[in-house]
Amino acid sequence: MTDEDEFRAAMLARFPVLLAHLAERPRAMSPSIALDGFKRMGPGWRPLLLRLLARLEELRLAMPEPERGVVRVVQVKEKLGELRVYVDDGSVAMYEETKTACVESTQICEECGAPGERRALERWLHTTCDAHIPEPRRR
Ligand SMILES: [Zn+2]
Asked: What pTM value is reported for the model?
């Protein structure tokens, strides 16, 4: 099991309802990589994601049934140097928490979790510390 698989398994075990959509799709059968979550997000953002999921879970448990039972995180990924988390059937408070965490990710190195900044490199945006600036690819 890779480090990434372990993290994924730990998250699915800790938040079985919130992440049911991701759990329902075994990795090999994912219709798209994005649905698999976690895979397209660097390890440096894991503590941030964990905090966000814990907060979303708190908010979910405070909701009445049946709303509480249908909230799902449907995607977790990196896009344009930013953590993106998509929640279906969430509340306004969940949306606000998610937005805050995603903005916060633009100041955290996606590789190591140290303070970082968003940089443009070869048409892509990456959020890294000085030590993890990606090498420009040679042509
Ligand atoms: Zn770094």
From this structure: 0.88
